[in-house]
Amino acid sequence: MIRAENVVKNYTNGKTVASVLKGVSLEIGQGELAVILGASGSGKSTLLSVLSGLEPADGGTVTVFGEELTAMTEKERTDFRKRTVGFVFQQYFLLPHLTVEGNVKLGANLAGNRDYMREIAAVGLEEKRGRRPAELSGGEQQRVSIARALAKEPRALFLDEPTGALDEETGRNVLDHLLRLQKERGFTAVMVTHNPAVAELGDTVIRMNSGKIAETYRNTAKKSAYEIGW
After folding, report:
1. For 155, which DSSP code?
2. Opening angle at CA 86, ends 30 and 172, nearest 5
3. Distance between CA 92 and CA 94 in Å, rounded?
4. Are 88 and 139 in contact (CB under 8 A)?
5. Do 194 and 39 contact (CB within 8 A), yes or no?
6. Contacts of 228 (CB under 8 A, 6+ apart)
7. Looking at the predicted structure, is the pLDDT value of residue 141 above 90?
8. pTM over 0.85
């Protein structure tokens, strides 16, 4: 379970302090897909960073699978991320000189996972494992980034606008791959998006506005990636 209680996050620019998260509290159950929805500047990406341990909170508590991130040092949070979470971003962050296999192996090495070819096959790129990022489509590159994240065998996967740079057809395909893998493996996933249609994929939907949670609800009629609007 992922739990946040009264989380505060501020950023300082000179003498100006910007309050980005203003007392956020939430719970995300084990094995769920939670979708964090909101406009640009609502605080959703900052919340993702705090929940995943990328950034420390300035107040409140964050507990992930029984470990309190807000009590950790920076080094301890780094260790937590290495052994517990995976990340997928809108930008693919693939190393251009490495092949598909090489990029995915980087994630596998963090966990000592020797079965990384399973991840490449799971995203449908086994026949392209020897290609470099420049030889792949945008959707294929994003699938490589998902395979790299899953090669760490994370308990939680955090995704920040994973389809933001993709066209509709490719975006649907990427989401379908992701949902299938989550169902098969049971990991917890937290996805940030500005697209309201994507919320129909989630078990829990968290709507952000001006650094606060405006609404949280359970999705009782989940749709597939091919059923939602775009």
Report:
1. S
2. 85
3. 6
4. no
5. yes
6. 197, 198, 200, 201
7. yes
8. yes
Q: In this predicted structure, what is the pLDDT of residue 113?
A: 79
Whether residue 146 contacts residue 88, with contact meaning beta carbons closer than 8 Å, is answered with yes
Return the pLDDT at 170: 86
């992701």: which residue's tokens? 178
| Nearest-5° Cα angle at 79, 75 to 85 | 130
Best CA proximity match to 189, nearest among 64, 27, 28, 39: 28
Question: DSSP letter at 27?
Answer: E
Residue 115, Cα to own-chain centre: how many angstroms? 22
Distance CA 57, CA 164 (A): 26
Q: How far apart are CA 230 and CA 167, in angstroms?
A: 10
What confidence score (pLDDT) does residue 133 get? 96
Residue 121 Cα distances to 112, 150, 214, 226, angstroms: 19, 12, 40, 22
3-state secondary structure 101-138: HHHHHHHHHHHCCCCCHHHHHHCCCHHHCCCCHHHCCH
Give whole-number Cα distances, 29 to 63, 115, 119, 173, 189, in Å. Answer: 12, 28, 24, 25, 10
d(CA 103, CA 134): 13
CA distances from 79 to 74, 75, 154, 170, 199 (A): 9, 6, 13, 34, 31
Q: What digits encode the pLDDT tens for the residues 113-127?
A: 788 898 898 888 999
* C-beta of residue 153 within 8 angstroms of C-beta of residue 113: yes
